[in-house]
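sry for the spam today, last one i promise. C-alpha cells for design, 91 residues
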C-alpha cells in the first residue's frame, strides 16, 4: 500500500491497479517468489510447479525415493580411522 502511495497512485485507484495486474497481466502467476528450503518444508511442493514439471518424471521419481541417504559412500571398516571407529562404537 505504501509503495503505491509513494509512486503517486491514489488510494482509491490502488485496488483497481492491483486487479488490473492480476486479472489482465497475470502478474500473480508470472511473478512468484523463488522457492527455497527456507520457505518450504521437505514434503511440500507447489501445485503450479508440479504441473509444469510432470513432463520430467525421472526428476519427480528421484525426489520421492526415501531410501536414498545421499552423501559420500561409506568406507570399509579397515579404511576408517581409529577415531571414527571409536565414535561409531560410542553410539
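last one done:
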Amino acid at each position: 500500500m505504501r509503495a503505491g502511495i509513494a509512486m503517486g497512485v491514489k488510494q482509491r485507484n490502488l485496488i483497481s491497479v492491483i486487479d488490473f495486474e492480476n486479472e489482465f497481466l497475470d502478474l500473480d502467476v508470472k511473478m512468484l517468489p523463488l522457492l527455497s528450503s527456507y520457505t518450504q518444508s521437505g514434503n511440500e511442493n507447489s501445485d503450479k510447479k508440479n504441473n509444469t514439471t510432470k513432463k520430467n518424471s525421472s526428476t519427480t521419481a528421484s525426489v520421492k525415493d526415501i531410501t536414498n541417504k545421499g552423501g559420500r559412500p561409506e568406507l570399509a571398516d579397515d579404511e576408517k580411522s581409529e577415531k571414527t571407529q571409536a565414535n561409531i562404537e560410542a553410539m
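Residues 28 and 85 are 54 Å apart (CA to CA). ok im logging off now
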